[in-house]
Design goal:
It contains 17 helices and 10 strands. It is an alpha+beta fold. One of its GO terms (biological process) is DNA replication initiation.
Length: 396
């Protein structure tokens, strides 16, 4: 991954969160998880110039890295872009004068790949809605990478904007099915099946993965369920994923280095909160020392997300613990971004101690509190990984 794309990430893209208008969240069509992530990244990249430019560009390989799949997989990217052009966004809202406004537009008016660059555009009417600062939710792109289900990410997007009110309000089931992309399916017309296959799994993943906790409630007419709403509260165990992470980080030297590199204030504070000063400083040292990387912000983002590139992660083999860590990181580097995300999720699910979980959230695979557990985990994942390494792996 030494040849991260040549183009620098835009100021908006470095922000790390995207303003999603309520009208853009309510989209018809069966968006896949990859298409939802792609839609968020494209909107973030274009946000600052939505009203001043008719089209927007992003390096295709940077785009692939940011949504977490093989940067050479252009066929998958083409299919996902085609899906966004074919997907319809619909809004029904009051304008500034209290008049009802209904509109419909494709999510993207066009998209093309040429010379390693992805160019795309929004219709003028949809761009205006996407840029409206009055009604929006902040979608954390670092957090969206943690989702493995498109239904769960869709539910999160549609619920998070109500976190301050504590409830989504009642949604007719027909609307809910459309928001989840399962309208028109006879199978999901039966609430029992909708609940078992869509609602329960999506709520479970949102509650486990994100910074909010959802509790569904239903309303019946006779014996039939006709409406659903979700009660919402903040998830204190995953508050680290919140964007509003205080002012203190701005006074440290690592924050200053990030800003000098071109990282936005918001994303710099997010990275320091999520990874800690020591890890970010080590990754900065690594990235700044590389001569063949033009987009250093993009490479730093990939390094922090992928757990590679820290100088201390390449210790002298004479130390058994250091040698085990070196081998673990070699295995991790060989895995795809999607696999690495799944590995982190699987390991984190095994941590029942709050301190251990917090340390892993902060330091990743270099978590000192979980060193023995990490070694045992990767020995299970790759039998024989430490066969000729000195010293015991240690207890789980």
């Amino acid at each position: 991954m030494d040849d991260i794309p040549r183009e620098h990430l835009s100021g908006a893209l470095r922000r790390g969160a995207v303003k999603k208008h309520v009208a853009a969240i309510h989209v018809s069509g069966k968006l896949t998880l990859l298409q939802r992530k792609l839609s968020n990244v494209l909107l973030l990249n274009a946000y600052d110039t939505l009203m001043s430019r008719q089209s927007h560009q992003i390096d295709a390989r940077t785009l692939c890295l940011m949504i977490g799949y093989n940067s050479n997989d252009m066929d998958t990217l083409k299919q996902s872009l085609r899906g966004l052009v074919e997907t319809v966004a619909e809004w029904d809202m009051l304008d500034d004068k209290g008049r009802q406004e209904w509109g419909v537009s494709s999510l993207l008016s066009y998209a093309k790949l040429k010379g390693g660059v992805c160019e795309y555009a929004y219709s003028p009417a949809l761009a205006e809605k996407l840029h409206d600062p009055k009604v929006f939710a902040l979608i954390n792109l670092n957090m969206q990478r943690r989702f493995t289900s498109g239904h769960a990410l869709a539910l999160y997007e549609n619920c998070y904007r109500f976190v301050r009110t504590g409830s989504t309000g009642w949604w007719p089931l027909d609307l809910f099915r459309r928001l989840m992309g399962v309208e028109g399916s006879a199978y999901y017309e039966v609430f029992k099946q909708l609940n078992a296959k869509i609602i329960k799994p999506a709520v479970t993943e949102v509650n486990k993965t994100s910074n909010i906790i959802l509790a569904p409630e239903t309303k019946k007419q006779g014996r039939a369920v006709t409406h659903i709403r979700f009660l919402i509260k903040e998830n204190p165990q995953l508050a680290i994923l919140d964007m509003d992470d205080g002012e203190g980080a701005r006074h440290g030297p690592v924050y200053a280095r990030l800003r000098a590199l071109g990282v936005s204030d918001r994303l710099a504070r997010q990275w320091l909160s999520a990874h800690g000063d020591a890890v970010v400083a080590a990754k900065l040292d690594y990235v700044e020392a590389r001569q063949n990387v033009v987009s250093k912000v993009g490479y730093l983002s990939a390094a922090l997300d992928g757990d590679f590139g820290a100088p201390e992660a390449e210790p002298a083999p004479a130390n058994p613990q250091a040698e085990r860590l070196r081998r673990i990181l070699e295995v991790i580097r060989a895995r795809t971004p999607t696999q690495r995300d799944a590995d982190r999720r699987l390991f984190a699910s095994q941590l029942t101690d709050r301190a251990a979980r917090a340390d892993f959230e902060r330091h990743g695979w270099m978590s000192p509190l979980n060193a023995a557990r990490i070694a045992a985990f990767w020995e299970d994942m790759s039998p024989g990984l430490f066969a000729d390494a000195a010293g015991p792996v240690g207890a789980r």
